[in-house]
């Protein structure tokens, strides 16, 4: 089988050119061989190889043939998917949200997914009081990007959420995304055997606020 032909590339794409040469080769190559293939000076290849090796994309290989003199350094591309490409996590989130939306009970399915997520979150400890648990919940929500703030109304404890890390999805699919958040909090609190639980989540209670209503765990049950 003929070896794939690799066209010369500009300086800006030199790293990619070296990678293409190594991936197209059926055997490890020396610096001189790579330079000849690309039509550049060996020092240029050597410079980029150092960074490619440091990034884990290329590796040194022991030469298979021994002869007089110092053996040439041999290189080959590490066999793995390209980790430098773009990511489309929002597209994945949209796909998953759409999948939940077609379930017989989208809200229940989404809340169940959130519970699984919440069950793996760090506990405040088995002896945490209600106040300590709420503080821990607020800290957890802050770490997740919800910009939470503690509130109260007529003596009832609340947590206001000023930011949604999935805002665009939540605006389009509130019946799916918001129950995921509810399940997250309930799953965490139940796993912690907390003295409080989330009674309900009032999505977009105000234009700039979602409101978490807390209650004693015994009262909610």
From TrEMBL:
Gene3D superfamilies: Winged helix-like DNA-binding domain superfamily/Winged helix DNA-binding domain
A Pfam family that the UniProt record links to this protein: HTH_20
Protein name: Transcriptional regulator
Phylogenetic lineage: Bacteria, Bacillati, Actinomycetota, Actinomycetes, Mycobacteriales
């Amino acid at each position: 089988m003929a070896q794939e032909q690799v066209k010369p590339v500009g300086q800006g794409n030199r790293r990619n050119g070296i990678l293409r040469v190594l991936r197209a080769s059926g055997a490890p190559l020396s610096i001189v061989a790579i330079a000849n293939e690309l039509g550049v000076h060996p020092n240029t290849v050597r410079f980029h190889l150092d960074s490619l090796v440091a990034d884990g994309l290329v590796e040194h290989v022991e030469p298979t043939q021994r002869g007089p003199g110092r053996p040439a350094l041999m290189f080959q591309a590490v066999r793995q998917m390209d980790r430098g490409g773009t990511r489309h996590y929002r597209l994945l989130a949209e796909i998953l949200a759409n999948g939940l939306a077609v379930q017989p009970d989208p809200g229940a399915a989404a809340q169940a997914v959130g519970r699984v997520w919440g069950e793996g979150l760090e506990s405040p400890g088995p002896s945490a009081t209600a106040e300590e648990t709420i503080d821990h919940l607020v800290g957890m929500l802050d770490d997740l990007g919800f910009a939470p703030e503690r509130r109260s109304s007529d003596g009832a404890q609340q947590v206001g959420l000023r930011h949604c890390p999935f805002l665009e999805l939540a605006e389009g699919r509130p019946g799916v995304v918001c129950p995921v958040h509810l399940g997250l909090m309930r799953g965490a609190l139940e796993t912690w055997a907390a003295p409080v639980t989330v009674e309900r989540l009032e999505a977009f209670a105000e234009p700039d606020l979602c409101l978490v209503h807390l209650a004693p765990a015994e009262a909610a049950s």
